[in-house]
Please model this.
Amino acid sequence: MPRILSGIQPSGQPHLGNFLGAMQRHVKNQDQNESFIFLANYHALTTIRDSQKLRDLTRELAIDYLAIGLDPNKITLFRQSDLPEHTELAWIFSCLTSLGLLERCHAWKDAMAKGKKDPSVGLFTYPVLMAADILIYKPNFVPVGKDQKQHVEVARDIAERFNYLYKETFPLPEPDITVEIETIIGTDGEKMSKSYNNTISLFGSDEQLEKEVLSIKTDSTPLEDSKNPKTCNVFKLYSYFANDDEISDLRDKYLTGGFGYGDAKKLLLKKLHTVLDPYREKRVEIAGKLDYVEEVLLDGARRARKVARKTLDEVRVKVGLQ
Ligand code: TYM
Model:
């Protein structure tokens, strides 16, 4: 079975971008892959400075994954911080990564362009830790959204550099990105992102979900006119969750006219409830079994360590630390 590795930051409530671009895909493929999925709480330290909040968000994210159907017998689910092996490998990698490679990363450049005040060294070296997260498991594929593609490419660059310096050690992982869902657009028309305040949350309250859906930006075409489904984010979001008949039905309504964006939003909201409510019910059940959640994470960490430790021991010998 191909091995996959992916991670998500517990830096806020997961949203439909995380769900469609990553989480749902991880779970859908759990029978076809040997999967390692982790909660990237070392990464979240770059933005979260409240200890209890970080602890809570990390646990909540584990509950979210279990609620959407992650089977811990099939997927090794773990907390990144239970594997300090990742950070040790990140240090070793940082010693062979050029500054220029990191300066070219979009996420860093965006943070600078948006005038991020007093950026931390951790934010800058973030892709090196990510390379360690990935390469330590020697995966074949890294299923992510498009925004993480460049970071996977950095991991490949670092692997090549290591292999060149210390002989073949790391197979080059492939980013696995599904074109139709590579970038989910947020309520304001930009990429949906926790840091842009434009998300539709996966497990928000009914009121929150309604507020978020109603706030999706649309153009000013009058109700009676024909509308372009291709450029409408409400239509796009609906199409990720609806079946072919439902999509073509909505397309007809757009093209015919007499159907407003408000009506489309109501339809989207209803669809989201139909798809997400069963997960929400499951989530309540799992949130009542916190000991179980902790057991899943600790067992995941034990399983992950078997692989991570082996790679790290190999690396320590190769670079001369042992
Ligand atoms: P994060 O937490 O920002 O996002 C988690 C996953 O969700 C995807 N995603 C999206 N996909 C489509 N459209 C969107 N609008 C959207 N927003 C987010 C992301 O691409 C990602 O797959 N650095 C990573 C976490 C990480 C990681 C790793 C991932 C740390 N180490 C190793 C893979 C492998 C991040 O911040 O993802």
